[in-house]
């Protein structure tokens, strides 16, 4: 596992709720009389630029791309259909799913994708839930495509086929 202070320019990272990003710069700034170091990230796809304090990167959920073992565990999570159906109101469920997406954990994002995909097969999702499902799917597709060095369309097809009715 890469220590969060060891990302270098040119490396790829995952940043919570934004997905795969390239480390495009390192910078030291004087803030309140202290020298603080920052990563400059550029999110793939959107081009969004994010500046992350190096000493807070791990706390913020910045992490290396998932390796083969983590990807295998993610697919186990997606295949697990023996999950209790959520009886919460849609807005409470939405908040819980948002918290999972904000962690940046591949496995928590996979749980959101699985749970919403299963729920969608039973009822119509609210607009917010549909957006959350799309977000979770996009985050998984983006990371898996880069980690496996394959196309996003191949990964999307693989994920979608797991929840076809």
- The strand order across the widest sheet is 4-3-2-1-5
First and last CA, distance: 38 Å
By DSSP, the count of extended strands is: 5
| CATH-defined superfamily of the largest domain | CarD-like, C-terminal domain
State the CATH class of the largest domain.
Mainly Alpha
How do the helices and strands follow one another from N- to C-terminus? EEEEEHHHHH
Ranges where pLDDT stays below 50 over 5 or more residues in a row are none
Kindly name the structural category. alpha+beta
Helix fraction, binned, reads 40-55%
Summarize, please:
With 165 residues, the chain is of the alpha+beta class.
What does this structure look like?
Residues 6-117 form the CarD-like/TRCF RNAP-interacting domain. This is RNA polymerase-binding transcription factor CarD. With 165 residues, the chain is of the alpha+beta class. The chain folds into two domains: 4-64, Thrombin, subunit H (Beta Barrel), CATH 2.40.10.170; 68-161, CarD-like, C-terminal domain (Methane Monooxygenase Hydroxylase, Chain G, domain 1), CATH 1.20.58.1290. It has five helices and five strands. Helix 2 (90-103) packs antiparallel against helix 3 and helix 2 runs parallel beside helix 4 (127-148). The longest helix has 22 residues, at 127-148. The relative contact order is 0.14. The mean pLDDT is 91.
């Amino acid at each position: 596992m890469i220590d969060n202070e060891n990302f270098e320019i040119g490396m790829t990272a995952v940043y919570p709720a934004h997905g795969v990003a390239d480390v495009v710069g390192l910078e030291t700034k004087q803030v309140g009389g202290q020298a603080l170091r920052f990563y400059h990230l550029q999110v793939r796809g959107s081009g969004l630029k994010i500046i992350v304090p190096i000493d807070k990167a791990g706390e913020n959920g910045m992490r290396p791309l998932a390796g083969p073992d983590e990807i295998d565990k993610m697919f186990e999570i997606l295949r697990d259909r023996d999950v209790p159906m959520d009886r919460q109101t849609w807005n409470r469920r939405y908040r819980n799913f948002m918290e999972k997406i904000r962690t940046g954990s591949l496995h928590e994002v996979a749980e959101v994708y699985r749970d919403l995909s299963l729920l969608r097969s039973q009822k119509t999702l609210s607009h917010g839930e549909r957006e959350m499902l799309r977000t979770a799917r996009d985050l998984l597709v983006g990371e898996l495509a880069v980690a496996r060095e394959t196309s996003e369309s191949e990964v999307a097809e693989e994920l979608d086929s797991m929840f076809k009715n």
